[in-house]
Amino acid sequence: MAQKPSIPKGTRDFNPQEVAKRNYIFNTIRREFEMFGFQPIETPSFENSSTLMGKYGDEGDRLIFKILNSGDYLSKVNDELYQAKDSNKLTAGISEKALRYDLTVPFARYVVQHQNDIDFPFKRYQIQPVWRADRPQKGRFREFYQCDADVVGSDSLWQEVEFVQLYDAVFTALKLEGVTIKINNRKILSGIAEVIGAQDKLIDFTVALDKLDKIGEEKVKAEMLEKGIPQSGIDKLQPLFNLKGSFGDQISELRSILETSEEGKKGIEELEFINDNIDVLGLKTASLQLDVTLARGLNYYTGAIFEVAAPEGVKMGSIGGGGRYDDLTGIFGLKDMSGVGISFGLDRIALVLEDLDLFPETITNTVKVLFINFGTTEAMASMKAIKALREQGVSAELFPDKKKTIKQFNYANKREIPYVVLLGESELASSTYTLKNMESGEQQQLSLNQLISELKS
To answer: What's the predicted TM-score (pTM) here?
Structure first.
């Protein structure tokens, strides 16, 4: 007996209804990207390993899918290296390419490679799949799509203001209300680390601080002590643990904490600029919230850091994120090219819309009308009508086989096709078409022009 086929863990098949729902999200995001002036690009699904490796930290490097060299990939590996069984060194000898881990590093490579053909500032968007050898769980897959928008070649904070508006525009268009756009600034985190005497332990400090909501104040303090942050420094953080209130209230508290840090004060100024202008411009359905524990992407973010949280009551991780990077293209030799970008988590957004029943009912309706097949003569007449309908923008199809009428009706019901046309002997004789509404059961006798008009409406 043949073994039942399967797919790798962390990957998925999508049925027609699921693809229609995903395309609804894609099209909504794409429309808003272009409304804000972003231009589309695409990059290869795999890159040279040297392009990707070393750009995401040790953990990120471990999650990159490597591609074996073509042919006899072991032929270039000497016996000494093979016997040593050092996987890192061996991998470098047998794999020169890898599947892209995200869209950001390939974008940086694209900018450097095509810098002479690009008009700066360059606003690009990209909607393509990426791959990570991660442990699959709800909302986390090994193959998934990223929807990114970036601006490079400008250090203006108006770009951050626009990205907050872009998030709001997309989630408003998706009818997903109550989304929270969390914002922080790398300079504030660096300033806090400076004030408490932990400049050399910024990552340890922020990793612990990021757990405040999950494990509580006392355990965060214990972890900081364990990482070598002095008690005197942790004592200075006490106001941070009690940081609450409005954006302005939190900024005032931060100003007192960071009064001795020029770097920290610069971060406060940047956050105030973004918040003050968003207050003037307004948001439709999202809210902007300061979150000093937000510390994603510290390997490359240098200014604002964004993370988008689903509405309260929805159990889901972040559904978007991004930030400012002052020198991302520097990893490929192009210095001083500031940029800022955001990403939408398509798969998680889809799960949230599903949970909240926010997908429009009509998006899975791929065909508007099905013609019943009564035989060769009737089928030809039906095809002529179908051609006329398609030319008028009405999606229509003929059931391909002459089967019992009830089976053809059942097929229409299962595919949720809203209308059925019967073109039998009597209709041929009178040059009419019987149009049946599958929901109400109502039937009409119509001419071809009336049929087209009715279905177009």
So the answer is: 0.88
